[in-house]
Amino acid sequence: MLTEEIKTSFLEVLEEGVKPATGCTEPVAVAYAAAICSKYLGSSKIASINIRVSANVMKNALAVIVPGTGEAGVKVAAAAGAIGGDAEAGLKVISNLKENVLREILELAKSDNVSAEVVPVEDKLYVEVTIMSREDTVTVKIAGGHTHVYWIQKNEEVIFEKEKPLSDEESKHTNFLKSCRFTEIWEFATCQDLESICSLKRAKDLNMALVKEGLEHDYGMKIGKTLLGERQLQLLSLEEKIVVCTAAASDARMGGAQRPAMTNSGSGNQGITATVPVCVFAQHREISDEKLIRALTLSHLTALYIHAFLPLLSAYCATDSAAMGAAAALIYLESEDEIKAEMAIKNMIGDAVGMICDGAGFSCAIKVVSSVSSMYRAVRLAQAGIVIPATNGIVSENVDDCIRDLGRYVSEGMQTSDPVILDIMMNKN
């Protein structure tokens, strides 16, 4: 039986870790910092913008489209935030860009007045934006979270300051999750008072709207739309429907749609992967709203639990770990068998966990396809009672040990991959 303290902590984790955001969250963090700069500059004309970011932020901003602009990169993100952003909107800072400022945004972004560089910091997520006008200079610094501002300076005056998070500092929510077990997450999701978790239904509303957007318009590489072809969605097999819909939502997300995604662990693609397969399965099987809400809670909380053992940003594509949450949710929807949910997660950990993150971009939709395909396969095997033996590879007998070992593999084993990936990305012939 879960204590009230544990239940409250799970609710806080969900509130903090499952949030709406418009656009890929790394360039959006740059836009957010720029919007705050502009807020303190007032109506003064922008003379220059300097952007300094960590390697992981640059990696995730090189190729992804900034919503409403049709262009990619931290320079475009900063210009969009500075000219058309809402400093009070958090991760939805550029969700309402007006067409009449688009030309100004792109002209500024492509001018010599905007510069960007990677800074040698230990932080996985670091953003520093300085905007100068003729009269004033404002600098905003972010670290430890996409909207975690710890420094605002105007000219020589520090307007706002709090202690910068240590590069390896973990939040109280992360520390709490690391002390949990999967069985506690299962119990919470399946037994918690429905009213307290009904907000998870918004994940369905936002991310399924992205599915519709991706299937009706040409975003990114049109992975979902192409896989659907001339067929009707309702005539696809369940697996095909899950793949097509999840890919389409990612297409729209990475292709610059001005619709928010419900994120997970600070990532829109992780949020999509933890949401869309669950909603498609529930619709296909005509599952009740109550059971869908519980399944979404299980999926998102499991994804957050697994991500607690991973770096905030890394060389590992965490749509795969988000899909492990979806795997648990599909088992719940079909058979309500906790043991088989654990088997499905173990099957995924023994399958394709080495998929790299080589930055946010159109290709994320293909990685999403790989993750949900692995998920569906793992679920089918688990439902048949088949699980990878604990004698094989990094799979252990206990699912919580598996999850911790996955975190160790990513944190230690893939640590040297990021610099190589970024070097390849930035120095192509």
Features:
alpha+beta, 60s Ribosomal Protein L30, Chain: A, 2-methylcitrate dehydratase PrpD, 2 domains, six-stranded mixed sheet, two-stranded antiparallel ribbon, 18 helices, 8 strands, 10% strand
Explain what this protein looks like in three dimensions.
The N and C termini lie far apart (59 Å). The protein is α+β, with helices and mostly antiparallel strands. It folds into two domains: 21-161, 60s Ribosomal Protein L30, Chain: A (2-Layer Sandwich), CATH 3.30.1330; 180-426, 2-methylcitrate dehydratase PrpD (Orthogonal Bundle). It has 18 helices and eight strands.
N-to-C series of helices and strands: HEHEHHHEEEEEHHHHHHEHHHHHHH
Largest β-sheet summary: 6 strands, mixed
Mean pLDDT: 94
Give the count of structural domains: 2
Give the number of helices: 18
Question: Which overall shape is indicated by the principal axes computed on the Cα atoms?
Answer: globular
Separation of the first and last Cα atoms: 59 Å
Instruction: Using the 3D structure, state the CATH architecture of the largest domain.
Output: Orthogonal Bundle
Q: State the name of the first-level CATH class of the largest domain.
A: Mainly Alpha
Share of helix, binned: 40-55%
Provide the fold topology.
Layout: H1 4-17, E1 20-21, H2 25-41, E2 46-53, H3 55-59, H4 74-84, H5 102-109, E3 114-118, E4 126-133, E5 137-143, E6 149-154, E7 157-161, H6 172-178, H7 182-191, H8 194-197, H9 201-216, H10 223-228, H11 238-254, E8 261-262, H12 268-284, H13 289-307, H14 319-334, H15 338-349, H16 364-383, H17 399-413, H18 417-426
Parallel strand pairs: 2-3
Antiparallel strand pairs: 1-8, 2-4, 4-5, 5-6, 6-7
Helix pairs in contact: 1-6, 1-13, 2-4, 4-5, 7-13, 9-11, 9-12, 11-12, 11-16, 12-13, 12-14, 13-14, 14-15, 14-16, 15-16, 15-17
